[in-house]
Amino acid sequence: MSPVARPTAAFFDLDKTIIARSSTFAFSREFQAGGLISRGAVLRSAYAQFVYLVGGADHDQMEKMRQFMSQLCAGWDVQTVKDIVGDTLHNIVDPMVYDEAVSLIEEHHAAGRDVIIVSTSGAEMVEPIGEMLGADHVVATRMEVADGRYTGKINFYAYAENKAKAVKDLARKRGYDLAECYAYSDSVTDVHMLETVGHPYAVNPDKDLRKIAVERDWPILVFQRPVALGSRVKLPPAKPTLTALAIAGVAGIGAAMWVHARRARREQPL
């Protein structure tokens, strides 16, 4: 008898790999339009989104943003935040996804591979998006919780080497043959994750990842057709939003995680 093939998986970064913009900052404009957060908070979020897209900010700027967002999210009720994200993500913001990425996810599923999203963004944001995309599992940053509320600190930070470790741990748990697995990312900070699989791909790579991909002969993919997620997958029916106060807390949690990621990215050597 021939040996039974071990299971395989495809690991996807989220922001700028599947989602065409930052998943954690997609809410700001809608919150402000509905009077849910202040104009000042929106402007700070818009600035952080700009920095994310162009890839530059000094340490002092990022530290100020981190402090602002950490103060905003600390103390929010965990279950309320989860309920709000689950109820409103697809209503307030229909995430702009790359059509090519969704097709690739469908191809991996058709080939019998699990699809795993591995994102530095918060689990509260990533898990509902993963469910919409039909992902089999999600690895994401998790905030520290005490007495049912966020403390403002990070319990598990899904970033750089931590992403790679999470992939390896999941492979051991599920029996994945990493040599036959795939991974996709746009960022040089995910080189460690890309190195863990036999089939790494750079997607719309930043300058440093592009250089590494060329040196190591990794395929480079260009995704350039953003479409509304609702045009590719069937979204759940609309639900009424919950309290405005807690929704503002969701924005703070996502922003705090992103700012922490940017700060660590600048400080950590490759």
Describe what you observe in this structure:
Helix 4 (78-92) packs across helix 6 (123-133) and helix 4 crosses helix 10 (244-267). Strand 6 (182-185), helix 8 and strand 7 (199-203) form a beta-alpha-beta unit. The chain is 47% helix and 18% strand. The longest helix has 24 residues, at 244-267. It is built from 10 helices and 9 strands. By secondary structure, it is α/β, with parallel strands linked by helices.
Total number of beta strands: 9
Low-confidence spans: pLDDT under 50, at least 5 residues? 27-38, 49-66, 240-261
Radius of gyration: 18 Å
**What is the H/E string?**
EHHHHEHEHEEHEHEHEEH
Determine the strand fraction and express it as a percent band: 15-25%
Main-sheet strand order equals 5-4-3-1-6-7-8
How many angstroms separate the termini? 45 Å
Helix count from the secondary structure assignment: 10
- SS-based class: alpha/beta
Which outline best applies?
A: globular
- The biggest beta sheet, please? 7 strands, mixed
Question: What does the average pLDDT come to?
Answer: 74
Helix content: 40-55%
